[in-house]
Amino acid sequence: MTRRAVIEGAGHYLPDRIVPNSEFEKTLDTTDEWIRTRSGIERRRFAAEGQTTSDLALRAARAALEQAGLVPEDIDGVIVATSTPDLTFPSVATMVQKDLGMTHGFGFDVQAVCAGFIYALTTANALILTGQANRLLVIGAETFSRIMDWTDRSTCVLFGDGAGALILGAQDGEGSNADRGILSSDLNSDGRYRDMLYVDGGVSSTGTAGKLRMQGNPLFRQAVEKLTSTAETALAKIGLSGPDVDWIVPHQANIRIIQGTAKKMGLPMDRVIVTVQDHGNTSAASIPLAMSVGVAEGRIKPGDLVLSEAIGGGLAWGAVVMRW
Ligand code: ACO
């Protein structure tokens, strides 16, 4: 018998306000056509004034609990992947824990920017496999609209707000790749790439939240190479390769990065869940959002082999392989 962290439910929440590319044409030297062809993004959601990351996270958590047929009493802990917390502290996770009415268990945040959900899933898997917890709520939630420089056309058209959540529960498997649950993961970071993607403010430097800065083109080239390599490493750890995968659920930053990575792995685009056109880049929320959409649309089904990969500020990148 091998203990596994199995996906028991998925849910998501998107703020009401839909912002089409054409909105940016009014204030910036940009076009719907440029944004669509260079990034694949057609629209994104922005949180309402006063709506915080924990508000989005809570709604995604409730949706995942409902989908799993579970209640907060069934959950041992909450992990939130985010780079845009409501406050410097306490964590978003403890806010969600309180709002769910949980006075038991634990909560903490994970910060690995767009790779945050991969890091959070890997952490949750380790906590479950070592018996620290039997059931965890793992959330990716962001309000990147709060750290945009609205005069910088090369970044502000790319990001959106949202949240997605998974529930992972302990189950016994046979120790083979046929088991449901997380089967493998691969984590990487390299701080030498810091200037490629960062926020120019923070608690111990400027005392402000800062704005996102990105060298898009060099990052693009790093992304395709590093995403393919981490995905192949995560699969190779369990003796699998690209063609074994039923669904890639990638980080949704740019359709051309998603297409390039799928092509390098030998997988057709009809086996990739793509939501970037509707959500933009929601950083750590993008993977659980896309997973929840894939489940709700009846595409991802129990038993499917799902590969997720992401790269973001740090640079930090990684991949997780799971059988749904
Ligand atoms: N509208 C019109 N023109 C624009 C815009 C815009 N919104 N933004 C940039 N341009 C211009 C540039 O100024 C440049 O003009 P120039 O040639 O006169 O200098 C031209 O378009 C081409 O710019 P590039 O940056 O070379 O365009 P590229 O094809 O690389 O696409 C993009 C840009 C979409 C940003 C792409 O590089 C990308 O997606 N990069 C990776 C993003 C990513 O993966 N981020 C990681 C995760 S994010 C996270 O962790 C928070």
What would a concise description of this structure say?
The protein has 324 residues and is of the alpha/beta class. It has helices at 22-25, 32-39, 53-68, 92-99, 116-129, 153-156, 216-236, 255-264, 276-279, 286-296; strands at 2-13, 17-20, 43-46, 77-81, 106-110, 135-143, 161-173, 181-189, 197-199, 212-214, 247-248, 305-312, 316-323. A hairpin with a 3-residue loop joins strand 12 (305-312) and strand 13 (316-323).
Task: Characterise the protein shown here.
This protein folds into two domains: 2-173, 3-Layer(aba) Sandwich (Peroxisomal Thiolase, Chain A, domain 1), CATH 3.40.47; 181-323, Peroxisomal Thiolase, Chain A, domain 1 (3-Layer(aba) Sandwich). Helix content is 31%, strand content 26%. It has helices at residues 22-25, 32-39, 53-68, 92-99, 116-129, 153-156, 216-236, 255-264, 276-279, 286-296; strands spanning 2-13, 17-20, 43-46, 77-81, 106-110, 135-143, 161-173, 181-189, 197-199, 212-214, 247-248, 305-312, 316-323. A five-stranded mixed beta sheet has the order 1-7-6-4-5, with helices on both faces. A four-stranded mixed beta sheet has the order 8-13-12-11, with helices on both faces. Strands 2-3 form a two-stranded antiparallel sheet. The radius of gyration is 18 Å and the shape is globular. The chain starts with a strand and ends with a strand. The model has no long low-confidence stretch (mean pLDDT 97). The chain binds acetyl coenzyme *A (ACO). Acetyl coenzyme *A binds next to helix 2, helix 6, helix 7 and strand 12. The site of acetyl coenzyme *A has 24 residues, from helix 2, helix 6, helix 7 and strand 12.
